[in-house]
Amino acid sequence: MIVKKLRLQQCWSQEQLSQFSGLSVRTIQRIERGQQASLESLKSLAAVFEVHLNDLQAEQNMQTQHEKNSKKTIHLELEEQKAMEYVEGIKSFYQHLFTYIVVISSLVTLNFFITPGYFWVIWCASGWGIGLTVHGIQVFEVFSLFSPQWEKKQIEKRLGREL
Protein backbone atom coordinates (compact mmCIF):
# COMPACT_ATOMS: atom_id res chain seq x y z
CA MET A 1 0.00 0.00 0.00
CA ILE A 2 2.98 2.36 0.44
CA VAL A 3 3.49 2.33 -3.33
CA LYS A 4 -0.12 3.35 -3.81
CA LYS A 5 0.29 6.15 -1.29
CA LEU A 6 3.41 7.45 -3.04
CA ARG A 7 1.70 7.15 -6.44
CA LEU A 8 -1.37 9.06 -5.26
CA GLN A 9 0.80 11.77 -3.68
CA GLN A 10 2.17 12.37 -7.18
CA CYS A 11 -1.37 12.18 -8.69
CA TRP A 12 -0.21 9.48 -11.10
CA SER A 13 -2.32 6.70 -12.53
CA GLN A 14 -1.04 3.14 -12.48
CA GLU A 15 -0.42 3.46 -16.21
CA GLN A 16 1.74 6.55 -15.70
CA LEU A 17 3.75 4.86 -12.96
CA SER A 18 4.17 1.89 -15.27
CA GLN A 19 5.66 4.13 -17.96
CA PHE A 20 7.95 5.93 -15.51
CA SER A 21 9.21 2.77 -13.81
CA GLY A 22 9.34 0.38 -16.75
CA LEU A 23 7.18 -2.12 -14.87
CA SER A 24 3.95 -3.55 -16.20
CA VAL A 25 0.63 -2.20 -14.94
CA ARG A 26 -0.18 -5.69 -13.68
CA THR A 27 3.01 -5.73 -11.57
CA ILE A 28 2.12 -2.38 -10.06
CA GLN A 29 -1.40 -3.61 -9.28
CA ARG A 30 0.02 -6.68 -7.51
CA ILE A 31 2.47 -4.61 -5.48
CA GLU A 32 -0.27 -2.17 -4.47
CA ARG A 33 -2.40 -5.11 -3.31
CA GLY A 34 0.43 -6.18 -1.01
CA GLN A 35 2.00 -9.04 -2.95
CA GLN A 36 5.76 -9.55 -2.67
CA ALA A 37 7.75 -7.53 -5.20
CA SER A 38 11.12 -8.46 -6.65
CA LEU A 39 14.20 -6.49 -5.71
CA GLU A 40 14.43 -5.15 -9.27
CA SER A 41 10.86 -3.88 -9.15
CA LEU A 42 11.45 -2.19 -5.81
CA LYS A 43 14.65 -0.57 -7.11
CA SER A 44 12.78 0.79 -10.09
CA LEU A 45 9.98 2.18 -7.92
CA ALA A 46 12.42 3.67 -5.42
CA ALA A 47 14.17 5.48 -8.26
CA VAL A 48 10.91 6.84 -9.66
CA PHE A 49 9.67 8.05 -6.27
CA GLU A 50 13.16 9.24 -5.25
CA VAL A 51 13.08 7.33 -1.96
CA HIS A 52 15.48 4.85 -0.40
CA LEU A 53 15.03 1.24 -1.38
CA ASN A 54 14.89 0.41 2.34
CA ASP A 55 11.71 2.47 2.67
CA LEU A 56 9.92 0.23 0.18
CA GLN A 57 11.47 -2.98 1.50
CA ALA A 58 10.51 -2.14 5.07
CA GLU A 59 6.81 -2.50 4.29
CA GLN A 60 7.30 -5.88 2.69
CA ASN A 61 9.54 -7.15 5.48
CA MET A 62 7.29 -5.68 8.20
CA GLN A 63 10.36 -4.01 9.74
CA THR A 64 10.75 -0.61 11.37
CA GLN A 65 10.35 2.13 8.79
CA HIS A 66 13.44 4.06 7.69
CA GLU A 67 13.53 7.80 7.15
CA LYS A 68 13.78 9.59 3.82
CA ASN A 69 16.36 12.28 3.10
CA SER A 70 13.79 14.88 4.16
CA LYS A 71 13.64 13.28 7.62
CA LYS A 72 9.99 12.46 7.01
CA THR A 73 9.05 8.85 7.75
CA ILE A 74 7.34 6.98 4.94
CA HIS A 75 4.71 4.71 6.35
CA LEU A 76 1.10 3.92 5.84
CA GLU A 77 -1.03 4.58 8.86
CA LEU A 78 -4.06 2.43 9.58
CA GLU A 79 -6.24 5.49 9.07
CA GLU A 80 -4.76 6.07 5.61
CA GLN A 81 -5.21 2.43 4.66
CA LYS A 82 -8.88 2.56 5.67
CA ALA A 83 -9.37 5.76 3.69
CA MET A 84 -7.81 4.15 0.61
CA GLU A 85 -10.06 1.11 0.94
CA TYR A 86 -13.07 3.40 1.35
CA VAL A 87 -12.22 5.27 -1.85
CA GLU A 88 -11.70 1.96 -3.68
CA GLY A 89 -15.25 1.03 -2.65
CA ILE A 90 -16.59 4.28 -4.07
CA LYS A 91 -14.70 3.75 -7.31
CA SER A 92 -16.03 0.19 -7.54
CA PHE A 93 -19.61 1.41 -7.12
CA TYR A 94 -19.34 3.88 -9.96
CA GLN A 95 -17.77 1.30 -12.23
CA HIS A 96 -20.69 -0.98 -11.37
CA LEU A 97 -23.16 1.82 -12.16
CA PHE A 98 -21.51 2.53 -15.53
CA THR A 99 -21.64 -1.16 -16.47
CA TYR A 100 -25.31 -1.31 -15.45
CA ILE A 101 -26.20 1.65 -17.66
CA VAL A 102 -24.35 0.31 -20.69
CA VAL A 103 -25.73 -3.23 -20.43
CA ILE A 104 -29.32 -2.22 -19.66
CA SER A 105 -29.28 0.32 -22.51
CA SER A 106 -28.13 -2.42 -24.87
CA LEU A 107 -30.82 -4.76 -23.60
CA VAL A 108 -33.52 -2.10 -24.06
CA THR A 109 -32.41 -1.67 -27.67
CA LEU A 110 -32.39 -5.44 -28.17
CA ASN A 111 -35.83 -5.75 -26.56
CA PHE A 112 -37.23 -3.03 -28.81
CA PHE A 113 -36.10 -4.78 -32.00
CA ILE A 114 -36.77 -8.43 -31.04
CA THR A 115 -39.99 -8.31 -28.99
CA PRO A 116 -41.47 -4.80 -29.05
CA GLY A 117 -44.79 -6.05 -27.66
CA TYR A 118 -43.33 -7.37 -24.39
CA PHE A 119 -40.99 -5.27 -22.26
CA TRP A 120 -38.98 -8.12 -20.67
CA VAL A 121 -35.92 -5.94 -20.03
CA ILE A 122 -37.68 -4.46 -16.99
CA TRP A 123 -37.00 -7.71 -15.10
CA CYS A 124 -33.28 -7.52 -15.83
CA ALA A 125 -33.11 -3.84 -14.95
CA SER A 126 -35.07 -4.36 -11.71
CA GLY A 127 -33.02 -7.30 -10.45
CA TRP A 128 -29.68 -5.75 -11.23
CA GLY A 129 -30.94 -2.35 -10.03
CA ILE A 130 -31.65 -3.79 -6.59
CA GLY A 131 -28.07 -5.07 -6.37
CA LEU A 132 -26.74 -1.72 -7.56
CA THR A 133 -28.82 0.11 -4.97
CA VAL A 134 -27.49 -2.11 -2.18
CA HIS A 135 -23.95 -1.51 -3.41
CA GLY A 136 -24.59 2.26 -3.43
CA ILE A 137 -26.00 2.18 0.10
CA GLN A 138 -22.88 0.38 1.33
CA VAL A 139 -20.58 2.97 -0.21
CA PHE A 140 -22.72 6.16 -0.02
CA GLU A 141 -20.58 9.02 -1.24
CA VAL A 142 -20.92 12.02 -3.58
CA PHE A 143 -20.22 11.30 -7.30
CA SER A 144 -16.88 12.38 -8.72
CA LEU A 145 -14.40 11.33 -11.39
CA PHE A 146 -12.01 8.41 -10.89
CA SER A 147 -8.69 10.04 -11.71
CA PRO A 148 -5.72 9.73 -9.37
CA GLN A 149 -6.39 13.35 -8.35
CA TRP A 150 -9.95 12.34 -7.40
CA GLU A 151 -8.67 9.36 -5.40
CA LYS A 152 -6.15 11.56 -3.60
CA LYS A 153 -8.83 14.19 -2.88
CA GLN A 154 -11.21 11.57 -1.48
CA ILE A 155 -8.51 10.02 0.72
CA GLU A 156 -7.51 13.45 2.04
CA LYS A 157 -11.18 14.26 2.63
CA ARG A 158 -11.60 11.04 4.57
CA LEU A 159 -8.41 11.66 6.59
CA GLY A 160 -9.13 15.33 7.18
CA ARG A 161 -5.55 16.21 6.19
CA GLU A 162 -3.09 16.03 3.31
CA LEU A 163 -1.79 12.64 2.25
Strand content: under 5%
- H and E string: HHHHHHHH
Computed CA radius of gyration, to the nearest angstrom: 21 Å
Q: What global shape is seen?
A: elongated
Q: Low-confidence spans: pLDDT under 50, at least 5 residues?
A: 62-73
Q: Give the total of domains.
A: 2
Euclidean distance between termini CA atoms: 13 Å
Features:
single chain, 163 residues, mainly alpha, 434 Repressor (Amino-terminal Domain), 2 domains, 8 helices
Characterize this entry briefly.
With 163 residues, the chain is mostly helical.
Descriptive report:
With 163 residues, the chain is mainly α. The chain folds into two domains: 2-61, lambda repressor-like DNA-binding domains (434 Repressor (Amino-terminal Domain)), CATH 1.10.260.40; 78-159, no CATH class. The chain has helices at residues 2-9, 14-21, 25-32, 39-49, 53-61, 78-114, 121-139, 148-159. Helix 4 packs across helix 5 and helix 6 (78-114) runs antiparallel to helix 7 (121-139). The chain is elongated, with a radius of gyration of 21 Å.
Secondary structure: elements and pairs:
Elements: H1 2-9, H2 14-21, H3 25-32, H4 39-49, H5 53-61, H6 78-114, H7 121-139, H8 148-159
